[in-house]
Amino acid sequence: MDVNITITGRTQRSVQMSTGERIEEHVIFNIKMGSKQDGSSIIPPPLSPSDLDSGVLRVNQQDFCAAFPYHIIVDRECKLVQVGKDL
């Protein structure tokens, strides 16, 4: 599968912290899916009910964010859904 990634925006700024100065950078990516080249797909086949467990979420959102403080979750349109507590 062909995937094209381009940078559409990039900014940097200097931020004064109590521990000194640091550079913050914000980068915007444009990700486009191209045509399939080898007939394979990055999308897995649908799961059957027998492939799934009980479906009970064993970790709540607060615990997940605490366990993964630097995570980012985006939806299929690349809109921000959730970030870790340290971001």
From TrEMBL:
Q: What InterPro entries would the database entry show?
A: HNOB_dom_associated, HNOB_dom_associated_sf
Q: What class of enzyme is it?
A: lyase
UniProt keywords (A-Z) are: cGMP biosynthesis, Nucleotide-binding
The residue ranges of the Haem NO binding associated domain are: 58-87
One term of GO molecular function = nucleotide binding
Q: Which domain of life is it from?
A: Eukaryota
Record-listed E.C. numbers:
4.6.1.2
Keyword Phosphoprotein recorded? no
Protein name from the UniProt record: guanylate cyclase
Q: Which organism is it from?
A: Panagrolaimus davidi
